[in-house]
Amino acid sequence: MPYEIEATAATTATPAEVFRHLAVPEAWGAWGKFPTPAKQAREGDTATYGVGAVKAIWPAAEQTVAYEPDTHFAYIALKGLPLRRYRSDVHLDQRGTGTFIRWRSQFEPLVPGTGPLLRVGLKWMVEAFTRWLPAHAEHCPPDCPARRAGDL
Fold first, then answer.
1. How far is CA 103 from CA 48, 60, 111, 149, in A?
2. Beta-bridge mates of residue 65
3. What's the gap between Cα 127 and its chain centre?
4. Cβ atoms of residues 61 and 40 within 8 Å
5. What is d(CA 115, CA 109) in angstroms, rounded to the nearest whole number?
6. Are 99 and 18 spatial neighbours (Cβ–Cβ below 8 Å)?
7. What three-state secondary structure class fits 137?
8. In Å, how far from its chain's centre is CA 30?
9. Nearest to 38 by CA among 25, 50, 52, 51
């Protein structure tokens, strides 16, 4: 049985600014508060950060599966999580000069019976992401990897 999680947030950052922070793997380390740096392990099939790109955030590896600049970014877990078929879709909608963020995740537990507990932990994580990402994007420092990445 798949579990679903959804969290939303609004930000004064533009969809382009938010998307850059999702697409650039190293930017996840700037806003995501991970204990180890995030890095790009593989470039995308047709764009550096596009579909097929793999980011590593120890112990996990995630692959970009949807890359629609400024509107939709999605990734799946390849390894490192006690889950099967984990997928997150982040939709960005322009609202005035800012952005509405809808982050939706689905997964199946790897170990039967652990779904409810995993859902609580992942819900906390996704809700944290929808707080941390906009807070960082609104006050993104000049040395942020999202700013240094160049063209997406």
1. 23, 19, 24, 23
2. none
3. 12
4. no
5. 5
6. yes
7. helix
8. 12
9. 25
What are the pLDDT digits (tens) for 36-87? 899 999 999 999 999 999 999 989 999 999 999 999 999 999 999 999 999 9
Q: Are 22 and 75 in contact (CB under 8 A)?
A: no
Which residue type does 73 have?
F
Contacts of 72 (CB under 8 A, 6+ apart): 66, 89, 90, 91, 92
E strands present in the chain: 3-11, 39-42, 54-57, 60-68, 72-79, 83-95, 98-109
Closest by CA position to 103, among listed 37, 2, 38, 10: 10
User: What is the C-alpha separation between 150 and 53, in angstroms, rounded?
Assistant: 16
27, 146 Cβ separation under 8 angstroms: yes
**Is 44 strand, coil or helix?**
coil
Backbone angles phi, psi at 123, to 5 degrees: -65, -45
pTM: 0.95
